[in-house]
Amino acid sequence: MSLALDYSGFKTLMLAALLPPAPLLALAAWGGWRLKRGRRAGGWMLAAALVLLWLSSTEVAAEWLSRAAGLPPALGPEEVVALRGQPHGAVLVLGGGVRRWVRPFGQGRPNAITGDRLAYGVWLSRRSGWPLAFSGGIGWTAGELREPEASIVARVAEQDYGLPLRWAEGRSRDTRENAANTVPLLAQAGVRHILLVTHEEHMRRAMRAFEAEAVPLGISVRAAPVGLRPQELFDFDVWCPSTAGFERVRYLVYEALARWAGR
């Protein structure tokens, strides 16, 4: 097998083992085994695993993790309008996944993450007057794809939003490659300012990668995060398990692992 396939399989295996709920289920099983053997500590391990399993599916845990990671500042509408007329800028949307085939459309479509980013990128482009760019290829764990994310998003941007992409980079497999492949492309076109569009959970890692590539070329990068929202930690429903809470917690843990791995 090729190196890419080896890395893809390794990454898939590690994520399955490290992302919730797998570690907590393993802790619960270990605690149950120790409890069965008459060790009281096993009961505490089992109880802790069950409590953490509950919390890992809640919005309140996601909010705690998000705040601990450091929330990027929101970009206000007045700040976006102030960009109009400033030259040499671009709105750059980062891919977050696509669906290979969606039956009602008869073609590939952005998933929810990429769809949210694209919608915000279009909004920013129209209000700032800056052209729109997109970066995303076929990710390490997206072996089922036959068409890069950039090709699918370019079609959707033109057909659904009436706003063709100025640049579409479709070779990147991760965030670090997004930066390495896209920044030189924009620099060659004379871009000196980038509005970087991705989710708040991903922004810290994305800014690290893009600033490393952009600063030596004299290009500024400004965060334009998607998903920022005030969250009341004392509302009853944020303490209850939900699909949104579970997905967000997994995403935050994934981003923490990715930052540690340097990808």
TrEMBL record:
Q: Which residues cross the membrane?
A: 12-33, 45-65
Which species expresses this protein natively? Pelomonas nitida
Whether Transmembrane counts among this entry's keywords is yes
This protein's source sits in the domain of life called Bacteria
Write out the entry's keywords from A to Z. Answer: Membrane, Transmembrane, Transmembrane helix
DUF218 domain location is 90-257
**Name of this protein:** YdcF family protein
